[in-house]
Design goal:
Mean pLDDT of chain A: 92
CATH class of the domain at 41-218 and 494-520 in chain A: Mainly Alpha
Radius of gyration of chain A: 26 Å
Largest interface: A-B, 111 and 101 residues
Strand content of chain A: under 5%
Largest sheet of chain B: 23 strands, antiparallel
Low-confidence stretches of chain A: none
Shape of chain A: globular
Low-confidence stretches of chain B: 1-21
Distance between the termini of chain A: 82 Å
Number of strands of chain B: 55
Strand order of the largest sheet of chain A: 2-4
Number of strands of chain A: 5
CATH superfamily of the domain at 2-100 in chain B: Immunoglobulins
CATH architecture of the domain at 41-218 and 494-520 in chain A: Alpha Horseshoe
Helix content of chain A: 40-55%
Largest sheet of chain A: 2 strands, antiparallel
CATH class of the domain at 2-100 in chain B: Mainly Beta
Oligomer: heterodimer
Structural class of chain B: mainly beta
Number of helices of chain B: 10
Mean pLDDT of chain B: 86
Distance between the termini of chain B: 54 Å
CATH architecture of the domain at 2-100 in chain B: Sandwich
Structural class of chain A: mainly alpha
Radius of gyration of chain B: 31 Å
Number of helices of chain A: 18
CATH topology of the domain at 41-218 and 494-520 in chain A: Serine Threonine Protein Phosphatase 5, Tetratricopeptide repeat
Shape of chain B: globular
């Protein structure tokens, strides 16, 4: 017995000393780190896919879970949903009925810098920027050759890098459009805690233009890329939109450049979709008109934001959810009467088929109570049914993609840039506008005359053609109609609406960001 | 240096030889004259020599000494000393037992200090309190924490009311925000995972049968807890389990039965009120009213039975002792379908080997805990319209056709199941060796384990309304986490008596190694092909997902402690622990946690003689540093997260999986709490009244927060990093008195009173000190929060709009925000910036009282508790106290009765009216027992009855003013009143 105990003690002591149990390091078990992730070449494409997916989903688990950013519910903070809300809710096109957090502030333009929706948009933008910067750092020629990446793959990655830079420019466009002067963080800035300096809105504008110009030739010809990925068509379209608003962004108008870029788009392989409704349906990936879309899929690309939000939130009241290929409406989004008034009559009987989806039955017309969904006009523009009436794969998560850029917008940019002195011809502009109206009316009865072709007409036509496509706020600001002019229901926080201060043309920088980055100066007025 | 020391200790052990020929031993047991059993911590000295020993938990002692004849004395505070002579022959053992007579009215206890330390309360320098079995709460005790509820000042036990559900403990207020605030539990020397491992959503302490517990010790200040280093910041709970006593043999059986009923229901409108409200405020929904008169809360609650049986056999002979116990518990909850069961077993064995020099001890506890807890029932019951029937005329459950309407909770109970099973075992084997030639040196080797295997299966058939509406077509979800912790500890203690005048010192030094490994597999299926197999299998499903996650962590420590006593007057304790944790990157793995404490037994000074009534007086002071590392593994490491199959992206016709780099702070390290404590221990009238007063302050720095980083500088907008600090400070008072001592009359009455006051303040949550962090998610609206972490305010202060007042009353009703609320920043509009921090969920004062009364064969006890200064956000009222709930969806929901008072027609989540004062006085526990004496064949027989939650007096309008840790009442599990009757038998 004595021997046994003693041997046990000796053994234990030996164990202690020999295994030198003084190193607490433990290698992670179920995670991959930057040290080994790129030992598989497929990781480069997976990384690029994440940059695209950053616009489409909210995290690494669908529909929610392991979110990309923190601070707000994942579905609420989804990129596309936020961009859409910030472009549409403060305008005459939409009102949302929910009382979630400070959401109602978006309806009235009376937002505070602590508003978590505004903050989340800002952080989504910089999450995308950070991803792209990291991707560019991990795909330099030096890194690729040190990892022994094949020549074919290296050439492929060159295209990936151009796509990544496009997506960074796309997000910086959102940043300067919404927030104005923001920091420019590039791949040459190392990850760390040093807060970046604030750039002027004009500097961001110049950076976006220079980036898009620089990558153009690394990308496929307009319309040549596989669906879902960007090519020269998307570059030209983004440049056209940026130039069209150059006076707002940089103080110097660039209508000629906008017109030239619109022409590049129009010269591509895109065609107006004969079926207008298809572009907002579950099979809109087959539309020849869409230049760039944020993709959704009922099974594989699930989110509580994105198009899931748009299709569910617009349904409620007297509508039958099944008609939209979904399992239930969320009773959230509807439009205001001033928008319906832009059409000769609105609704299924209107000659302008672009308004055919408006629902009046069970709705009060006027938005008398922001948080009562049935006050307003139902406007379920998007659907999870295909153009042939089949339902999407999943009745909760929709297949419908969000059309970011489509050819009709290029037509209208051409027309507006021409009217604003950017060159081109009136005849061509009129032809483009009437092409859209012919499609809308199904015949030539909707055509306008040369005399009717004015910038004011273009603004209204954009509302009719691009209703709820996430461009209204930018358009109104370009026309000076967003804050100090233009009145619609609940603007300024009162039912009848009133004008607001000019500083509302820019959103405030998030309050939390001003603390995290002391180099930032808040926008005037906030 | 530590390593060298440990190795030297081992070297010393390994070359040990049997006792030298010319010495012999004195051994024996010290017992109490009142029959309460062995006395732990008594001092046995050989008069005229420096030899002596302190009795162990079982009252035994051993002294090795040269052959000869000696006078041996045993003494213990509260008892009359006793001495006897012993003749020691070389190589032989003289058995010398003592039975000490009680002197003081109040027995001064001992405190257990961890790593083998036992100290007399009179000698304590830090703040540690041991509660013994006889002071435990009586009644339906499902979890060990409930035993000491309201017993120890500064310790809050926060029960979620569900049998076996979550219980939180807070010792002197939490020290963290994002890491755990739970104390470290140490069972017979084995530290459990902080926050509880893989308990499948239940209280992780459920595995331990409260009937097996002998003592629970709370280490409150840093001097007491710093020996547990990086895990001691929230205090430490040391649990020792019962063991057998050599030379005895007892069989005990206890059985009790209980019934519980709901104390208070949520205050919803009845059918008549609801009908009137719909007619007035939602005329469009009158057609959906229905004609029934249903109380949905009654429909989903029940009076709940419970039964418990425990059998134990304990005893031993010669040097060996054992205890074997088995227990069974079956407790239903007052919510339909909720249930908690436990089958437990415990085995303790100890023996003295190698000429009694080696104390060998083994402890094993194991249990299987089962539970059912279907979720969401109360929420659906409060929302369902009271004018709708439980069932349709055809016998099927009534359901709304509308997607957004509440689901019939009875249907959910019938169809949806969520069952959990947790197997858990904790055990250790310990060998303590009294080194022969260095008198007073003892070496301990302890190995332990904590193993949990749990399983939770949730099943929802295709016919469940929730699944029909969600288009999920049935769900099956199974999680099978498993966690294994292993422990190796090695420490030595050297005790030396310096003089007979009460001077002594002891030092302890050691090493521990802990490893934790977890496997977390899970399986999820949706769109089931059939419901036939229920929760027992998935024959086929359209959606099937499997996951596996594995993690591992290590904690390596070196520690030391020294106690020095000079002349029985001046006491000094110092400890230090150096912890190395795998949770941090290189450079931050190691942390040092020191403490010092001193005490002055001023009563021993000659000048105190003139205060005759004063029988004890001691001043104490302590200072120390603790850490907190209870958060996720690998936070320092930049990893890539692989997207799942539902978060892909489409390139052309192929879906591509995604990868995402994570945002990390590679320099993340421990949270660090520095605390100081000043205290006075006193005794009056020969210690008939004893008590202590403590003042403390705890500052936690390097708090781990997930905070915004400058956009673009890292890979997400928030990074988890050490930023921020928080302070707790407070006052504790505990007084115990023997009101009647049972000598003059048959009456004995012991009363104790505990009071504690804690002030919590967030000092900073970011580098700049001006930021605030929104916390406290509420039901109603997505992403809505009601609380804030704001510098200068208590943590989790409510962040609300302040109502304007008119005529001393808040302005309410159907009005725009600008008329309802104060425009704090005067910008003409009510925005987020107009919310202010207002009140907090934590009580500022917690008072507790316990009385034990006995008269002849009768005994009775009562425990009461009072909270002052705590507030609760009534989330049920805020979501449903608005007429909008009648129109928000096509199915009108029931309303909270507050709507009758406030008349809101739109939801006002952030109204300060919903932050309600929740101070309360609760009679927690009343029990009465009768002990039969001289029953043939039995050594003891006692019957008892107890009532828990006898009454609560509060102004709070919800179901329970103690709404969890964070004070948000969102359809809480209702409080129940429990009646228990039982008997204890001894053979």
């Amino acid at each position: 017995m004595k021997i046994t105990i003693r041997s046990m003690l000796i053994a234990a002591g030996a164990l202690l000393v020999v295994t030198a149990c003084t190193d607490p390091t433990v290698a992670p078990k179920s995670s991959v780190s930057s040290a080994n992730i790129f030992s598989e070449e497929a990781s480069y494409k997976a990384f690029l896919a994440k940059i695209y997916a950053g616009l489409a989903v909210s995290g690494q688990q669908g529909p929610a879970g392991n979110g990309d950013i923190s601070g707000l519910d994942e579905g609420f903070s989804q990129y596309m949903r936020l961009w859409w809300q910030m472009e549409e809710l403060p305008t005459d096109e939409a009102a949302i009925s929910w009382n979630d957090g400070p959401l109602q502030e978006l309806n009235t333009q009376i937002w505070a810098s602590s508003n978590s929706f505004l903050g989340s948009m800002y952080y989504r933008i910089y999450f995308q920027v950070g991803l792209v910067n990291e991707f560019l750092r991990e795909t330099t020629d030096a890194k690729l050759s040190s990892r022994g990446v094949s020549a074919a793959m290296t050439a492929e990655i060159k295209k990936y890098r151009a796509e990544a830079r496009f997506l960074r420019a796309y997000s910086y466009w959102h940043a300067m459009d919404l927030f104005g002067p923001v920091p420019l963080v590039k791949e040459t800035d190392e990850v760390g805690k040093t807060p970046p300096a604030q750039a002027t809105r004009g500097e961001v504008f110049n950076y976006v233009v220079s980036e898009l110009t620089a990558i153009r030739n690394d990308l496929a010809a307009p319309g040549a890329a596989e669906y879902g990925r960007v090519d020269q068509g998307a570059v030209a379209m983004l440049l056209a939109k940026v130039y069209l608003n150059a006076a707002v962004y940089s103080g110097t108008a660039k209508y000629a450049e906008a017109l030239a870029e619109a022409q590049r788009v129009i010269a591509g392989s895109y065609r107006l979709d004969a079926n207008f409704r298809r572009m907002f349906s579950a099979d809109n990936n087959t539309s020849p008109e869409i230049i760039f879309a944020i993709q959704q899929d009922g099974d594989k690309i699930q989110t509580w934001g994105g198009m899931t939000f748009l299709v569910h939130a617009e349904v409620g009241g007297s509508m039958n959810a099944g008609d939209f290929g979904i399992d239930g409406g969320w009773w959230g989004l509807r439009t205001k009467p001033t928008i319906a008034a832009l059409y000769p009559t609105a609704g299924p009987t209107s000659p302008d088929k672009r308004s055919s989806f408006f629902v009046f039955n069970g709705f009060s017309g006027n938005v008398t109570n922001l948080t009562d969904y049935t006050t307003g006009i139902g406007s379920p523009k998007y659907t999870n049914k295909t153009s042939t009436g089949a339902s999407g794969k999943n009745s909760t998560f929709v297949d419908t993609d969000f059309p970011v850029f489509r050819l009709a917008d290029a037509y209208l940019i051409y027309a507006e840039a021409m009217l604003r002195g950017g060159g081109g011809t009136r005849a061509q502009a009129l032809a483009y506008v009437n092409a859209l109206r012919d499609r809308a009316y199904g015949n030539t009865t909707g055509q306008i005359t040369d005399a009717q072709l004015t910038t004011a007409f273009i603004l209204d036509e954009r509302a009719r053609e691009l209703f709820w496509e996430g461009t209204r706020r930018t358009d109104l600001i370009r026309y000076g109609q967003f804050s100090t002019a233009g009145v619609w229901q609940w603007k300024g926080g009162i039912a009848a609406g009133k004008v607001t201060e000019a500083f509302r043309d820019l959103y405030p920088l998030p309050a939390s960001e001003l603390i995290a980055n002391p180099k930032l100066k808040q926008n005037t007025g906030y | 240096m530590w390593r060298t020391g440990v190795m030297a200790l081992f070297a010393a052990l390994c070359v040990s030889e049997p006792a030298l020929a010319q010495t012999g031993r004195i051994t024996g047991t010290v017992r109490s004259s009142d029959g309460s059993g062995p006395i732990m911590g008594a001092e046995v000295v050989v008069i005229g020599t420096r030899f002596g020993a302190i009795t162990r938990e079982d009252g035994r002692y051993t002294i090795t000494i040269d052959a000869g004849t000696y006078r041996v004395r045993a003494k213990r505070i509260g008892y009359a000393p006793d001495s006897t002579s012993a003749v020691v022959a070389a190589g032989a053992t003289a058995v010398t037992d003592f039975t000490l007579k009680l002197t003081a009215s109040q027995i001064s206890g001992v405190v257990i200090t961890g790593y083998g330390g036992i100290r007399d309360v009179r000698d304590r320098t830090g703040v540690a309190e041991t509660v013994k079995e006889r002071d435990f709460n009586i009644g339906r005790i499902v979890s060990p924490e409930q035993l000491i509820q309201a017993k120890v000042p500064g310790v809050q036990v926060i029960d979620n009311n569900e049998p076996g559900g979550g219980i939180s403990m807070r010792i002197r207020g939490g020290t963290s925000v994002n890491a755990s605030n739970e104390p470290l539990f140490v069972i017979d020397g084995v530290p459990l995972s902080v926050g509880g491992g893989v308990s499948s959503g239940r209280n992780p302490m459920n595995f331990l049968n409260p009937a097996d517990i002998a003592t629970i010790t709370v280490l409150k200040d840093a001097s007491a807890s710093a020996i547990y280093g990086s895990r001691g910041a929230n205090g430490v709970i040391l649990i020792t389990t019962k063991s057998g006593v050599a030379g005895t043999s007892t069989v005990s059986f206890s059985s009790n039965f209980s019934t519980s009923t709901i104390v208070k229901k949520p205050s919803m409108l009845n059918a008549t009120q609801f009908r009137a409200a719909v007619q007035q405020y939602a005329p469009q929904n009158v057609s959906k009213l229905g004609t029934a008169n249903t109380d949905w809360i009654d429909a989903v609650t029940q009076s709940a039975g419970g039964a418990e049986q425990n059998l134990s056999m304990a005893g031993g002979k010669d040097d060996m002792s054992y205890r074997l116990s088995i227990g069974s518990l079956n407790q239903n909850g007052v919510i339909l379908g909720t249930n908690s069961r436990r089958a437990s077993m415990g085995l303790t064995y100890s023996d003295l080997l190698l000429d009694d020099r080696l104390e060998f001890r083994a402890n094993f506890k194991g249990s299987k805990a089962d539970d059912n807890y279907p979720a969401g029932g109360i929420g659906a019951a409060t929302a369902m319209a009271p004018t709708q029937p439980l069932r349709n005329p055809d016998g099927t459950y009534f359901q709304w056709a509308d997607w957004l309407g509440a689901n019939n909770p009875l249907s959910d109970y019938d169809l949806i199941s969520s069952r959990g099973t947790v197997y858990r075992s904790v055990g250790n084997i310990e060998a303590k060796y009294n080194v022969p030639w260095i008198d007073g040196l003892k070496a301990t080797l302890r190995t332990g384990y904590d193993f949990t295997q749990s399983s939770r299966v949730s099943f929802s058939p295709t016919t469940a309304q929730f699944d029909i509406e969600g288009g999920r077509g049935g769900r099956f979800d199974k999680n099978n986490p498993r966690q294994t912790n292993t422990l190796l500890e090695l420490f030595g203690t050297y005790t030396r008596k310096l003089s007979d005048a009460g001077s002594s010192f002891d030092v302890t030094g050691g090493y521990t190694y802990e490893n934790s490994r977890g496997d977390y597999p899970s399986f999820y299926a949706e769109k089931l092909s059939t419901n036939l197999l229920g929760a027992n299998g998935v024959p086929g499903a359209t959606v099937q997902q499997t996951y596996l996650y594995v993690d591992e962590s290590k904690l390596i420590s070196f520690f030391g402690r020294a106690n020095y006593t000079l002349g029985d007057k001046y006491l000094l304790t110092a400890s230090v622990r150096r912890d190395g944790s795998s949770r941090f990157g290189s450079g931050n793995q190691w942390g040092i946690f020191p403490s010092v404490a001193g005490a002055w037994r001023i009563i021993e000074e000659p000048f105190m003689q003139r205060f005759g009534q004063l029988s004890d007086l001691k001043l104490r002071a302590s200072w120390g540093v603790n850490g907190n590392q209870s958060f996720g593994n690998y936070l320092f490491l930049s990893t890539y997260t692989i997207g799942d199959s539902k978060a892909m992206y489409q390139f052309g016709n192929t879906f591509v999986s995604t990868i995402r780099p994570s945002a990390v702070d590679p320099n993340i390290k421990w949270e660090q709490t520095t605390s100081s404590n000043f205290g006075v221990d006193f005794g009056l009238y020969n210690n008939r009244v004893t008590g202590s007063i403590d003042l403390y302050s705890k500052t936690t720095d390097d708090l781990i927060f997930t905070v915004p980083v400058a956009a673009g500088t890292n890979l997400s907008n928030y990074v988890t990093t050490n930023i921020g600090s928080m302070k707790n400070s407070g006052l504790e008072l505990g007084v115990s008195a023997v009101v009647f001592d049972g000598k003059a009359s048959p009456w004995r009455w012991d009363a104790s009173f505990a009071a504690s006051h804690n002030t919590n303040e967030i000092e900073s949550v970011s580098g700049s000190g001006t930021d605030k962090i929104l916390v406290g998610g509420i039901a109603g609206g997505v992403g809505n929060t009601i609380q804030v972490l704001q510098p200068g305010k208590p943590r989790d202060s409510f962040l609300v709009f302040r109502h304007k007042t008119a005529g001393g009353k808040p302005v309410t009703g159907n009005k725009p925000d600008i008329e309802l609320y104060e425009d704090i920043n005067k910008d003409g509009a009510i925005t987020q910036d107009d919310k202010v921090a207002y009140k907090q969920p934590q009580p500022t004062w917690v008072l507790g009282h316990t009385s034990n009364v006995s008269y002849k064969n009768w005994d009775a006890s009562a425990t009461a508790r009072m909270y002052l200064g705590n507030y609760v956000y009534n989330n049920v009222a805020s979501t449903q106290g608005t007429y909008r709930a009648l129109t928000g969806t096509q199915a009108p929901n029931n309303l909270h009765s507050s709507v009758l008072k406030y008349g809101f027609t739109s939801t006002q989540y952030f109204s300060d009216l919903y932050v309600e004062k929740a101070s309360f006085l609760r009679l927690d526990n009343v029990s009465v027992g009768y002990t039969f004496k001289n029953v043939p064949q039995l050594t003891s027989l006692r019957v008892f009855g107890a009532i828990q939650n006898v009454f609560t007096s509060t102004k709070y309008s919800g179901v329970d003013p103690m709404a969890g840790v964070n004070g948000i009442d969102n359809n809480l599990y209702p409080l129940s009143r429990t009646f228990t009757a039982g008997l204890n038998l001894g053979f």
